[in-house]
Amino acid sequence: MSVRPNSPQARDIAHVLHPYTHLAKHQETGPLILTRGQGIHVFDDTGKQYIEGLAGLWCASLGFNESELIDAAVKQMRELPYYHGFGSKSTLPSIDLAEKLKAMAPANFSKVLFVNSGSEANDTQIKLAWYYNNARGKTKKKKFISRIRAYHGITIAASSLTGLPANHRDFDVPLPGFLHTDCPHYYHFAEPGETEEEFATRLAKNLEDMIIREGPDTVAGFVAEPVMGAGGVIVPPRTYFEKIQAVLAKYDIMFIADEVICGFGRTGNPWGCQTYGITPQALSCAKQLSSAYLPIAAVMIGEEQFQAMVEGSKKIGTFGHGFTYSGHPVSAAVALRTLQIYEERQTFEHAKTVGVRFQARLKRLADHPLVGETRGVGLIGAVELVADKKSRTNFDPKQAVGMYASTRAQEHGLLIRAMMNDSIGLCPPLIITEAEVDDLFNRLEKALDETETWVKKESLRPAA
User: Fold this and answer.
1) What are 356-384's pLDDT values in tens digits?
2) Cis bond upstream, residue 174 (ω within 30)
3) CA gap 364, 374 in Å, rounded
């Protein structure tokens, strides 16, 4: 596609640095420019309509034109457009939102600290755990364990938790003290004849071995997404989190739940923790907290951790952490209205019901010649494209088969995301209807058929 001089695409190329983008190719093709939204659809600058098959970035739960959220933002803008939380200041929206979050949380949390993104939330969890352990005299307890193919953000500490190669290469992360245990992807990493339960037992044993090797008195926390999102929508094997939590409890290691993607109805329950029987000591949430209409995220911690932090502030004279926009009143007002809408419209119940149709259509794709595995829960899923179904062998990453399928889907008016191992992520807005689910998958099937034709034409082969 040629880019016209002085067009919005040309101006974008000249001035904007894009996240998660092949920057060299972008210089040639320019961006897809979106100009408006309606329900689960967005429209580009030519008027073409697309189903947003990833809810933006796993986040636009109420779609793209929810007037109640716009009204909440405007109302708060007129009353108090900004204030901070430093030095014992507060605003009513942040108080109301904290109270609401605690009431609906999957564990008994004491306090809520507001930040601006999932990355900031997980970065903050690391700092708070260090502060907590210093306050209780366990000054060596500082290491963190996450998992290969996890995604926990892109600040320096959060990207150290993240377990994806592209987030590490040439950025000089992970930092020392950040460890990565096994990826719980049964499809690729189970041994021949191993059941899901046996796979989970082995992974829990490997985690325990890592903790013992490092020294239990040096490990502060384990951070996990209930379902691994950006790593390819990896659903945990049966009994996995039960066994992982037993190991962590044995060695006094905090379980910090990263609910940034899974939280607020995505897995068929209000929280992914409830879907998988997780009782965390701390929790991060973001994205669907405000349906992504304004940036906001939250860190929830327990009473024991809070009291240790109180003692630390006595010693130091302040709690030296927070952001200019922590608990921004407009963002908090929009988030509060989002949570109220979820209740008033029974959004989670709707998503659970429609999720049955979504998962049924997803599973049907397992028969496609290119699809090695379909996986998902609720209204989140993925299809993994493989070069050889029998051996479960992926294509060479340089062939970018997943990206080709994503491009074909875009031509058919479906925006999806290609991830590691040519996995195609699907995560539509929670308001999607069964008819719209069928429309989404019909478009995806066309894209997969065209990708299969291209693969045959190019004689693409498995990775060496």
Assistant:
1) 999 999 999 999 999 999 999 999 999 99
2) yes
3) 9
